[in-house]
Amino acid sequence: MSTQVDEAHIKRVEELARYVIDGLVDNPGSASIETSLEEGSLRIIIEADPEDVGKIIGRGGRTIKSIRTLARASVATPSLHVDIDVEG
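User: That's the sequence. What structure does it adopt?
Assistant: Structure tokens below.
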């Protein structure tokens, strides 16, 4: 897998996460998204206001699970694992 493909995948997932998170939280400008690529795994850390963390996680974790599913589908590369964590 080339570096260009990895960068394109990272950018696509980051844009998707930003779009979804901005639609969920009360103060979109306060949420930050940090990505890192390590050994075939893309890790995304979403840092948001404590009041918004519950909205991102959702009841029983349903919302964050859906965000993870969308992120994994947007990569469309089975060899690249995507993991998303939320901090507040």
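The chain is about 50% helix and 25% strand.
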